[in-house]
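no rush on this but wanted to send it before i forget. what follows is a protein written twice so to speak, once as letters and once as structure tokens for the fold. mainly i need to know what kind of three dimensional shape the backbone takes. thanks a lot i owe you, the record is right below.
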Amino acid sequence: MTIPCVICVAITGSLPTKANNPAVPITIAEQVESTHKAFEVGASIVHARVRSFAVVCG
């Protein structure tokens, strides 16, 4: 018997700046790519926060 599992990934994290983490996806294209990669390795749900590009990138 298998037990179903839902994997949720938060692609933008809690500190969404390149200064905090150079790998954090900021642009829509980066977020789509990150989501696709997460899906390929088993994620079922993506949690993303929409933020102002000007605020995130300064």
